[in-house]
Protein backbone atom coordinates (compact mmCIF):
# COMPACT_ATOMS: atom_id res chain seq x y z
CA UNK A 1 0.00 0.00 0.00
CA UNK A 2 1.47 3.34 -1.01
CA UNK A 3 1.45 5.98 1.68
CA UNK A 4 -0.68 8.50 -0.12
CA UNK A 5 -3.83 10.24 1.07
CA UNK A 6 -6.84 10.08 -1.28
CA UNK A 7 -8.30 13.36 -0.04
CA UNK A 8 -5.32 15.69 0.34
CA UNK A 9 -2.81 13.98 -1.96
CA UNK A 10 -0.11 14.04 0.72
CA UNK A 11 2.68 11.55 0.15
CA UNK A 12 6.20 10.71 1.28
CA UNK A 13 8.61 13.67 1.24
CA UNK A 14 12.42 13.45 1.03
CA UNK A 15 14.94 15.82 2.56
CA UNK A 16 18.07 16.07 4.67
CA UNK A 17 18.80 15.24 8.28
CA UNK A 18 21.14 17.97 9.49
CA UNK A 19 23.39 17.07 12.41
CA UNK A 20 24.97 19.44 14.94
CA UNK A 21 28.14 19.52 12.82
CA UNK A 22 25.97 20.37 9.79
CA UNK A 23 26.61 17.01 8.11
CA UNK A 24 23.68 16.18 5.85
CA UNK A 25 22.22 12.71 5.28
CA UNK A 26 19.13 11.88 3.22
CA UNK A 27 15.91 10.78 4.91
CA UNK A 28 12.18 10.40 4.24
CA UNK A 29 9.19 11.80 6.09
CA UNK A 30 6.23 9.46 5.78
CA UNK A 31 2.59 10.48 6.04
CA UNK A 32 0.54 9.12 8.92
CA UNK A 33 -2.08 7.20 6.91
CA UNK A 34 -4.94 4.99 8.02
CA UNK A 35 -7.25 2.76 6.03
CA UNK A 36 -10.91 3.54 6.76
CA UNK A 37 -14.21 2.10 5.61
CA UNK A 38 -16.60 4.98 4.97
CA UNK A 39 -20.29 4.83 4.05
CA UNK A 40 -21.45 6.88 1.05
CA UNK A 41 -25.08 7.75 1.74
CA UNK A 42 -26.04 8.84 -1.77
CA UNK A 43 -24.64 5.62 -3.33
CA UNK A 44 -25.72 3.38 -0.41
CA UNK A 45 -22.37 1.56 -0.19
CA UNK A 46 -19.14 1.44 1.76
CA UNK A 47 -15.75 2.34 0.29
CA UNK A 48 -12.33 1.64 1.75
CA UNK A 49 -10.00 4.63 1.43
CA UNK A 50 -6.49 5.45 2.62
CA UNK A 51 -6.45 8.81 4.38
CA UNK A 52 -4.04 10.91 6.35
CA UNK A 53 -5.13 11.43 9.93
CA UNK A 54 -5.43 15.13 9.18
CA UNK A 55 -7.93 14.35 6.40
CA UNK A 56 -10.11 12.41 8.87
CA UNK A 57 -10.89 15.69 10.63
CA UNK A 58 -11.88 17.22 7.29
CA UNK A 59 -14.20 14.28 6.56
CA UNK A 60 -16.06 14.73 9.82
CA UNK A 61 -16.67 18.36 8.89
CA UNK A 62 -17.45 18.15 5.13
CA UNK A 63 -18.06 14.53 4.14
CA UNK A 64 -15.96 12.38 1.81
CA UNK A 65 -17.04 13.57 -1.65
CA UNK A 66 -17.11 17.25 -0.69
CA UNK A 67 -13.66 16.98 0.89
CA UNK A 68 -12.14 15.34 -2.21
CA UNK A 69 -13.67 17.95 -4.53
CA UNK A 70 -12.57 20.90 -2.37
CA UNK A 71 -8.98 19.58 -2.23
CA UNK A 72 -8.90 19.18 -6.02
CA UNK A 73 -8.79 15.38 -5.90
CA UNK A 74 -10.29 12.85 -8.27
CA UNK A 75 -13.50 11.02 -7.37
CA UNK A 76 -12.34 7.97 -9.35
CA UNK A 77 -10.45 6.92 -6.21
CA UNK A 78 -13.82 5.89 -4.75
CA UNK A 79 -14.67 3.48 -7.57
CA UNK A 80 -13.72 -0.18 -7.15
CA UNK A 81 -10.79 -1.20 -9.37
CA UNK A 82 -12.81 -3.81 -11.25
CA UNK A 83 -15.32 -1.13 -12.34
CA UNK A 84 -12.86 1.67 -13.12
CA UNK A 85 -13.28 2.98 -16.66
CA UNK A 86 -16.20 0.67 -17.50
CA UNK A 87 -19.47 2.32 -18.44
CA UNK A 88 -22.61 0.62 -17.10
CA UNK A 89 -24.25 -1.49 -19.76
CA UNK A 90 -27.83 -0.78 -20.78
CA UNK A 91 -30.47 -3.40 -20.15
CA UNK A 92 -31.84 -5.11 -23.24
CA UNK A 93 -35.62 -5.12 -23.46
Shape: elongated
Radius of gyration: 18 Å
Major β-sheet, in short? 2 strands, antiparallel
What's the CATH topology name of one domain?
A: Ribosomal Protein L24e, Chain: T
Helix count, DSSP H or I runs of 4 or more residues? 2
Are there runs of 5+ residues with pLDDT below 50, and where?
Answer: none
Mean pLDDT: 81
Strand content: 25-35%
Summarize the structure in words.
- The protein is of the alpha+beta class.
- The protein has a domain at 1-11 and 30-77: Ribosomal Protein L24e, Chain: T.
- It has 2 helices and 4 strands; from the N terminus they run E-E-E-E-H-H.
- The strands form 2 sheets. The protein has a two-stranded antiparallel ribbon.
- Helix 1 (53-62) packs across helix 2.
Concise overview:
This protein is an alpha+beta fold and 93 residues long. It is built from two helices and four strands, in the order ββββαα. Helices cover 18% and strands 30% of the residues.
What are the salient characteristics of this protein?
single chain, 93 residues, alpha+beta, Ribosomal Protein L24e, Chain: T, two-stranded antiparallel ribbon
List the helices and strands and how they pair.
Elements: E1 13-18, E2 24-29, E3 33-40, E4 45-52, H1 53-62, H2 64-70
Antiparallel strand pairs: 1-2, 3-4
Helix pairs in contact: 1-2
